[in-house]
Design goal:
The protein is 36% helix and 11% strand. It is built from eight helices and seven strands. It has helices at residues 63-74, 87-99, 114-128, 152-174, 190-193, 199-219, 245-250, 263-274; strands at 54-58, 78-83, 104-108, 133-136, 182-186, 225-229, 285-286. Strand 1 (54-58), helix 1 (63-74) and strand 2 (78-83) form a beta-alpha-beta unit.
Length: 296
């Protein structure tokens, strides 16, 4: 060893992190009501990886969607934020995007409604005159303890929000996308592990994996890449809006890192997949999940 080299102390294991018990009544949840607030600001300076690109992000008002919006804005992208009805969260995300020197436009509505999807895409194109990146991120989940109690109404609703919306948004965007464009779909660790009380949700996330792989093959000749991100337990508004207070407090504890991830630990996956750094990657899924080993 060189005498000038300093001996480094062994890295300390990070403290286990838990959230205080809390619960929200309505999905997809309100970020401003969470304790502690999720971390969404990028941890690195931008270098213009997405300069002048236009990104549409569904569920972009909070959680992973907010972190992706801010991260892409820092890399130079113009952002169209699609959200349900959390207007305060959406306005705050737009403010954060604009603080990065970019522009944000907001569209409130239900992505389960095909006509709303087409209208949001049309209006985005009218505003920015191009569409380069689609992030299909909006989702909902509802616990059911007994599979017999899973209603047809809930089953259809979950699939319309989580899966049908991705078809609608993709079809609408493809009329404007050129070679070099990207589609990034949010799936989940539950697609690979299942979840005994989120059977319909996990099923939609499995469908999204197949959608991602199939679309990538259908669009490769057009120069449009399609990839996915499968987060593990992440601290987003959907968590207190989905589970009881006790489960919320334990969220992420079962991951090898023994904590929930933060949205800004997931957002770099989307930036990478949307950039030229990932020019040889399509039909793949990234797994920011705190160390869980999956058979993918």
């Amino acid at each position: 060893m060189n005498v000038h080299q300093k001996i480094k102390k062994p890295a300390e294991k990070p403290e286990k992190q838990k959230q205080p018990p809390q619960q929200q009544e309505h999905q997809p949840g309100v970020e401003s009501a969470m304790r502690p607030r999720p971390e969404y600001l990028p941890r690195y300076p931008g270098v213009g990886k997405l300069k002048d690109k236009v990104a549409i992000i569904t569920g972009g008002d909070s959680g992973i969607g907010r972190a992706v919006a801010v991260a892409m804005a820092r890399e130079g992208a113009l952002i169209s934020i699609i959200y349900l009805e959390e207007h305060d969260d959406a306005r705050e995300t737009a403010r954060l995007v604009e603080a990065e020197g970019s522009q944000a436009i907001l569209f409130a509505g239900d992505v389960a409604d095909e006509m709303f999807c087409w209208e949001a895409v049309e209006r985005t194109f009218e505003e920015f005159n191009r569409i380069d990146i689609l992030v299909n991120n909006a989702a909902e989940q509802h616990e059911v303890d007994d599979p017999v109690e899973l209603s047809t109404e809930q089953l259809e609703r979950t699939f319309r929000t989580n899966v049908f919306s991705q078809f609608h948004m993709t079809r609408a965007c493809l009329q404007y996308m050129q070679a070099g464009a990207n589609i990034i779909n949010t799936t989940s660790i539950t697609a690979y592990r299942g979840h005994k009380t989120l059977i319909d949700y996990a099923s939609t996330k499995g469908a999204i994996v197949s959608l991602t792989r199939s679309l990538s093959q259908a669009l490769v000749d057009k120069g449009i890449r399609v990839n996915g991100v499968a987060p593990g337990p992440i601290w987003t508004p959907l968590i207190p809006a989905s589970f009881d207070a006790k489960k919320v407090a334990e969220h992420g504890a079962s991951a090898p890192m023994e904590r929930a991830g933060q949205p800004n630990e997931v957002a770099p996956c989307y930036v990478f997949l949307a950039s030229e750094d990932a020019s040889y990657i399509t039909g793949q899924v990234l797994h920011p999940n705190g160390g869980s080993v999956l058979n993918t």
